């Protein structure tokens, strides 16, 4: 039996990570599922692997998660080049609302990526522009196939870089400087101005704890 073992998170998809994050059971079952999901081996075949070899496989997978990740502003998926929001200070109110909804949830990480990364429309060397933000009809489903190194590093980058931006927005909201459209967005999401403002302030106060939690490791 030939087994392809991922040596880097770029060889694991977000979909695999999300599936593994939903696994429940004892330690032995978790290890079997780790090999099944990350190596694409049927569970019945994983159980037949010699114990010594299984231990080596698990060690290699763990090492892949321990490698230092590098933030990437662009990547190509299914022939489409995506770019990270080039100017976070220009992010829209609608983007903030949706980001707040998905931040910190492994099961919604593909939706978060669909906001942070969008198809590039114009590019000139290192400069580029991306599509205008609009709610994705398919919920960013295609982002489940994004390599895991990108999927995990993008939220981390956003957490650290966006702190001052979100605090600025929260201060603005606390003064209720909202347009009719912005108020409508909050109402449609069942959120009041004060509640949303407080939520924004809490997002980054817990970012350090979140980055050190199971959200960023197996």
Any descriptors?
single chain, alpha+beta, 2 domains, four-stranded antiparallel beta sheet, 11 helices
Radius of gyration (CA) equals 20 Å
The succession of helices and strands, N to C, reads HHHHEEHHEEHHHHH
Quote the average pLDDT: 78
E-strand count: 4
How does this model look, in words?
- With 218 residues, the chain is of the alpha+beta class.
- The protein folds into two domains: 9-66, no CATH class; 74-216, no CATH class.
- It contains eleven helices and four strands.
- It has a four-stranded antiparallel sheet.
- A hairpin with a 2-residue loop joins strand 1 and strand 2.
- The relative contact order is 0.14.
- The model is unreliable at 190-201 and 203-218 (pLDDT under 50).
